[in-house]
Amino acid sequence: MFYNHSSSFPQKRMRRNRSKQWVRSLVEENCLSINDLIYPLFIVEGRAIRETIPSMPGVFRLSQDLLIEELKLIEDIGIQAVALFPVVPQEKKTADGKEAYNANNLLCNTLLEIKKHVPDIGIITDVALDPYTSHGHDGVMKGDTIDNDATVEILCKQALVQAKAGADIVAPSDMMDGRIGAIRKSLDDHKKTDTLILSYAAKYASSYYGPFRDAVQSSSLLKGDKKTYQMNPANADEALHEVALDIQEGADMVMVKPGMPYLDIISSVKKTFQVPTFAYQVSGEYAMLSAAAEKGWLDYRASMLESMLCFKRAGADAILTYAAKDIARWLSK
Ligand code: PBG
């Protein structure tokens, strides 16, 4: 594969393949398509509400009516799937997060409406308790630790109400042990064998989630940090163990999160397991690029498209990004 630099060969000129746009296109190894994009969206209670999120310019909290309009538009520009995150009012948050499995909650109601009005777009729902807990953690607490097995039982109920309301893919982002197997079994036991599971298999305890927590209004509530369940950013081998377990337990696709600082993890997951591997370009990454662009320090379009291509090069099959709508428009021009 590599070259012998012995003097009897003429000089290899790598620049020949870069000399014109048409040849650059021919030798291009990876490309980004609209089919690779998943658009995350935030839902709030009420009607005709469109709230801005200061740390995420261009991203809004939408009430159900506006969300449905947005989904129609997104579908028109060719985006195939979205990930939904509810913003839960303070008075519905409890220590046990039981609103998560209320079949009548904001998310489930919205799913039912979406399936009536925009049935063909793929809907991914987040399985984790943090929007619903008064302490902001993804699970329930026993003393000052997160109770793994009690949490898994609740997550199974949460995933089931979501699946029954129409979620196509349930996506556990909580990082409890054993939840993929338990959720798969519970879905199957209730005849939801067609519901897919996207596991946030390698999710790190990252400081890049800050703007998301602003968006769902959980940042001021969060007691402590999530380091006893989300992974240590220092670890790579551990990510492969997490992914191996989740595949074994029945995940249909796996995700690495955050994205850009973790391209090495995406690459080794894809190479090791050859399963559908998604990347989440998280809120903090979006905020960095948007803020630099606002200041005129980076070209938003060029840097965003480059970041997407790099996800593809690393091996990502699909990418969750808050810029999905912008990117889809650029790609279709
Ligand atoms: C919660 C969840 C988080 C994100 C997605 N699901 C935040 C967290 O773990 O605290 C972060 C997404 C982002 O930053 O864009 N289970």
Short description:
This protein has an eight-stranded parallel beta barrel, surrounded by nine helices.
Structural class: alpha/beta
Ligands (ions, cofactors included):
ligand PBG
Strand order of the largest sheet: 1-4-5-8-9-10-11-12
Q: Main beta sheet, described?
A: 8 strands, parallel, barrel
Low-confidence stretches: none
Stated plainly, the CATH topology is called: TIM Barrel
Rg is: 21 Å
**Element order: H for helix, E for strand:** HEEEHEHEEEHEHEHHEHEHHEH
* First-residue to last-residue Cα separation: 37 Å
Going by CATH, the architecture would be Alpha-Beta Barrel
Can you characterise this structure?
With 333 residues, the chain is of the alpha/beta class. It has a single domain (32-332), classed as Aldolase class I (TIM Barrel). Helix content is 38%, strand content 17%. It contains 11 helices and 12 strands. The chain has helices at residues 21-27, 64-76, 106-117, 148-165, 179-189, 210-215, 237-249, 263-273, 283-294, 300-314, 324-332; strands spanning 37-44, 50-52, 60-63, 81-86, 122-127, 141-142, 145-146, 169-172, 196-203, 253-257, 277-281, 318-321. The strands form 2 sheets. Strands 1-4-5-8-9-10-11-12 form an 8-stranded parallel barrel, surrounded by 9 helices. A two-stranded antiparallel ribbon has the order 6-7. Helix 2 packs across helix 3 (106-117), helix 3 (106-117) packs parallel to helix 4 and helix 8 (263-273) packs parallel to helix 10 (300-314). The radius of gyration is 21 Å and the shape is globular. The two termini are 37 Å apart. The structure holds ligand PBG. Ligand PBG binds next to helix 6.
